[in-house]
Specification:
Blueprint lengths: L12 H8 L4 E2 L1 E6 L5 E6 L3 E4 L4 E7 L5 H6 L2 E6 L5 H6 L7 H4 L2 E3 L5 E3 L4 E13 L2 E13 L7 E3 L2 E3 L5
The chain binds flavin mononucleotide.
Length: about 170
């Protein structure tokens, strides 16, 4: 039991983050364009499928990020599911002070949201709803187009580090 850690409200937020980090995820880059046509995007692993009929999915966006406001205000956004070779893009879109869309290859989706070239899957969405989720916004999108490639391995994230599949 020496390795068992415990968090309770008021305790060390790092312990809560570490507990949440026990849930292995994929990695996405969520993108949109604002009213002046400027592209925005950030790395997100809080992506979850919500509903098949209607087709809904969600991401949780930290309110202090610069991308959160344009994303919750945009009528359309896109979710790019990354493959292992896109680890540099994941780092770029999670780091402040660089030219994210200058350093990454992308093309425009049907409603203008940037689609990163080589992504494993791409979901182009209309904004369906935005809910308050504490220090995050819960952005729910309705899928208007989904495309994916069979073959490449997904980029994974677990306990604060990038991982890849190794189980057959
Ligand atoms: C693997 C990974 C997953 C992340 N997931 C989220 C997430 O789900 N929601 C979020 O708001 N930020 C997430 N982040 C952090 C943002 O990508 C990071 O804060 C980014 O710099 C925000 O950019 P901005 O302030 O320019 O919008 C994640 C970062 C990494 C590396």
């Amino acid at each position: 039991m020496a390795n068992l850690h415990e968090y309770r409200p008021g305790g060390d937020p790092r312990t809560l983050r570490d507990a949440l980090g026990c849930f292995a995820t994929g990695v996405t880059v969520v993108t949109c364009r604002d009213g002046e046509d400027v592209p925005h995007g950030l790395t997100v692993n809080s992506f979850t499928s919500v509903s098949l009929d209607p087709p809904l999915l969600l991401v949780c966006l930290a309110k202090p990020t610069t991308s959160a406001k344009p994303l919750v205000e945009a009528e359309h956004f896109a979710i790019n599911v990354l493959q292992t070779e896109q680890r540099p893009a994941s780092i770029t879109f999670a780091t402040r002070g660089n030219d994210r869309f200058g350093e990454t290859q992308w093309e425009e989706g049907e409603h203008g949201a940037p689609l990163l070239t080589g992504s494993l899957a791409m979901f182009e969405c209309d904004r369906h709803a935005v809910h308050d989720g504490g220090d995050h916004w819960i952005l729910i999108g309705e899928v208007k187009r989904a495309r994916f490639e069979k073959g490449p391995d997904p980029l994974l994230y677990y306990q604060g580090r990038y991982r890849r599949l190794h189980f057959d």
